[in-house]
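User: My collaborator sent over this chain with a note saying "see what the structure looks like." That's all I know about it. Can you take a look?
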Amino acid sequence: MKKIISAIIICLLVQTTVTAKEIYRSIEEKPSFVKLESVKQVSAGHILVDTYDEAMALKKRIDDGESFERLAAKYSKCPSGQRGGALGSFGRGVMVKPFENAAFNLQVGEVSEPVKTDFGWHLIKVYNRG
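Assistant: Without extra context I'll predict from the sequence alone. Here is the result:
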């Protein structure tokens, strides 16, 4: 949205007339130009471990078909591990920034690469976006 507004301002500055139809057509032709989806909340789980190597080993096991939730219950050092890593739903500004950025950029069912925070290394899985 910021890019569209910037484009409109630039057009106004150079005294070019841009119609709403032209703006919408440019969005349709170049969908990567603007991100139309605005996710306000995600429901996610995580596995928290001490080292990058531990996180990568667990990520490989998940990629090879093992259950994220079972591995969270067995290896996560966070109390949420008892619930299969489930954290519930949260909005922006609730989690530390690296965690938030990763969670809000994942698709449903996707598991992140290891994410470093002050708490350790996380693997994050998103269950729902809304």
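A starting point for your reply to your collaborator: The domain at 41-129 is CATH 3.10.50.40 (Chitinase A; domain 3).
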